[in-house]
């Protein structure tokens, strides 16, 4: 491969494909490198794809993309060992155009999406690992791949190599992550009859529901579980900070089994057959963990730049937006014939000014705060469950008596003060 | 419909996954003696989601063929004692669905 490209994009996930798609569409000569057998073969997410950011790349994609179900209901279960307090929103407006979000299976979806980039003119090469960036005089000028004579050159290299961005790390853009900056998620795809899914989750044809699980789903460790409906499968998973698994010496797949056997969950997945088991890291360090994302001849996008909003389980949308903005910047740089950090910095500015940067900043302290204060999960959620049980159990006691008991359950005046302070602090880190 | 089994083992889970293993490992314990002498917990044998790290009396066995390439071991090893690379292009885990 001796030919020179305008841009080389490393990694065919939502960020890389978005970037390659828009670059090719803008007339750039772009190479998209993927280490897996096909795009999606290494990619894992719970399964929610957001319509707006995807439409910014491909308008009305939902008319042809391989999607599972448009989500019409989002539930949040605050779980104790044998109970749950559930909040939910269901709205029919989400079930029709323009939709809010969809469940997808990544191996299928990413292949389709990469194909759209190829149709725009991007050159996709699979089964190729980028070993390092080729740097000349402090400027990234290409990549060294694991193919014979595998050096390829370009004006700009886009690192979309995911959470394990060894490339950004080797450029010194960010340090190795700590175990409290990443969440380890394990999940399974469970086969279940389409009709059974619809009956069990109160859905019509082409409607889906997502359930996020807090509290006992992660045995009180910081993290969440999830259960999403696909066409004729369910995606069930659980993710916790790696530091939490280490501290509590918990095996991640046993935690997944614990969630699957939880009395609030097991009835929903009963009779299903596991189809695939997947594990992946999620970068959850947030804004504080973001390293450098721009250099001479290089831009970092998606998970490789820590773009995840853990509180709202958003990631693929941030990835797509970062890919789109990177492409926009590179096209401007191409026009100017200048690929220095100064010009490419336009990407960083646009990213941080927009919703991506705003949301990253908004939640910058949240992971750390909830990690340092596990009682939100292991005390307050059980407390909430006990209060609900007390209030809704009709046993001859007056409601006043019940309220008194709930109030007493909150602990001593000192503990109540601490709780009030915790609620205020929780509000502060997410406000 | 068969009744849901109470617990599924990691072996059963791994059996569901397609791997196209390379002939050589992409994971290396840098210094074997550290695992033996300085690491009583051997926590990688606990948190690795594919249980590829197994302690065998005096040495760490690395069953790289079943690796999900998640990166946890590189980040979670308390002694930064794991050299972690991506498997050769086209090799390693192949997700078909998720």
Automatic annotation (TrEMBL), chain A:
Pfam families: ETF-QO_FixC_C, FAD_oxidored. Its cofactor is FAD. Transmembrane segments: none annotated. PROSITE patterns: PROKAR_LIPOPROTEIN (PS51257). Keywords: FAD, Flavoprotein, Oxidoreductase. It comes from the Bacteria. Coiled coil: none annotated. One of its GO terms (molecular function) is oxidoreductase activity. InterPro entries: FAD/NAD-bd_sf, FixC-like, FixC-like_C. Gene3D superfamilies: FAD/NAD(P)-binding domain. Residues 367-430 form the FixC-like C-terminal domain. Belongs to the ETF-QO/FixC family. PANTHER family: ELECTRON TRANSFER FLAVOPROTEIN-QUINONE OXIDOREDUCTASE YDIS-RELATED. This is Protein FixC. It comes from Robertmurraya siralis.
TrEMBL record, chain B:
The keyword Transport applies. Coiled coil: none annotated. Pfam families: Fer4_ETF_QO. GO terms for molecular function: iron ion binding; iron-sulfur cluster binding. Keywords: Electron transport, Iron, Iron-sulfur, Metal-binding, Nitrogen fixation, Transport. Residues 58-87 form the 4Fe-4S ferredoxin-type domain. Transmembrane segments: none annotated. The keyword Ribonucleoprotein does not apply. InterPro entries: 4Fe4S_Fe-S-bd, 4Fe4S_Fe_S_CS, ETF-QO/FixX_C, Fd_FixX. To ferredoxins from P.putida and C.tartarivorum, ferredoxin I from A.vinelandii, ferredoxin II from D.desulfuricans. Could be a 3Fe-4S cluster-containing protein. This is Ferredoxin-like protein.
């Amino acid at each position: 491969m001796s030919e020179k490209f305008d841009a080389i994009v490393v990694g065919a996930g939502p960020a890389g494909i978005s970037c390659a798609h828009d670059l090719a569409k803008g007339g750039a000569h772009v190479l998209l490198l993927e280490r897996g057998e096909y795009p999606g073969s290494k990619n894992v997410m719970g399964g929610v794809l957001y319509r707006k950011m995807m439409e910014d790349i491909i308008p009305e994609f939902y008319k042809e993309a391989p999607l599972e179900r448009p989500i019409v209901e989002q539930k949040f279960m605050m779980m104790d060992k044998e109970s749950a307090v559930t909040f939910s929103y269901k709205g029919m407006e989400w079930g029709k155009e323009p939709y809010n979000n969809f469940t997808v299976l990544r191996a299928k979806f990413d292949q389709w999406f990469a194909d759209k980039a190829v149709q725009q003119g991007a050159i996709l090469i699979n089964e190729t690992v980028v070993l390092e960036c080729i740097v000349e005089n402090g400027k990234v000028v290409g990549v060294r791949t694991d193919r014979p004579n595998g050096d390829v050159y370009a004006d700009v290299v886009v690192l979309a190599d995911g959470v394990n961005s060894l490339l950004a790390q080797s450029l010194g853009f960010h340090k190795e992550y700590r175990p409290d900056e990443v969440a380890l998620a394990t999940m399974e795809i469970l086969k279940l009859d389409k009709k059974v899914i619809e009956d069990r989750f109160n859905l019509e044809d082409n409607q889906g529901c997502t359930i996020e699980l807090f509290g006992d789903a992660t045995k009180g460790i910081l993290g969440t579980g999830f259960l999403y409906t696909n066409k004729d499968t369910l995606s069930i998973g659980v993710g916790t900070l790696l530091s939490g698994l280490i501290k509590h010496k918990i095996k991640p797949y046993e935690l997944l089994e614990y969630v699957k056997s939880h009395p609030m969950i097991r009835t929903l997945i009963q009779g299903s057959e596991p189809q695939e088991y997947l594990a992946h890291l999620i970068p959850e360090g947030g804004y504080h963990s973001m390293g450098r994302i721009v250099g001479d001849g290089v831009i970092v996008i998606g998970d490789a730049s820590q773009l995840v909003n853990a509180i709202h389980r958003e990631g693929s949308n941030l990835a797509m937006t970062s890919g789109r903005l990177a492409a926009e910047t590179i096209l401007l740089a191409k026009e100017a014939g200048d690929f220095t950090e100064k010009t490419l910095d336009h990407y960083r500015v646009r990213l941080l000014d927009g919703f991506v940067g705003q949301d990253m900043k908004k939640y910058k302290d949240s992971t750390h705060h909830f990690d340092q204060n596990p009682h939100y999960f292991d005390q307050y959620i059980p407390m909430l469950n006990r209060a609900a049980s007390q209030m809704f159990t009709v046993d001859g006691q007056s409601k006043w008596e019940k309220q008194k008991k709930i109030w007493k359950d909150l602990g001593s005046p000192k503990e109540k003060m601490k709780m009030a302070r915790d609620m205020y602090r929780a509000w502060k880190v997410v406000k | 419909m068969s009744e849901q089994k109470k617990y599924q083992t990691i072996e059963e889970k791994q059996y569901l996954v397609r791997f196209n293993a390379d002939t050589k490992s992409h994971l290396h314990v840098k210094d074997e003696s550290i695992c033996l002498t300085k690491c009583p917990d051997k926590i990688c044998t606990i948190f690795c989601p594919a249980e590829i790290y197994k302690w065998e009396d005096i040495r760490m066995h690395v069953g790289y063929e079943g690796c999900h390439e998640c990166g946890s071991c590189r980040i979670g090893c308390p002694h930064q004692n794991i050299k972690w690379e991506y498997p050769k292009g086209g090799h390693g885990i192949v997700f078909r669905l998720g």
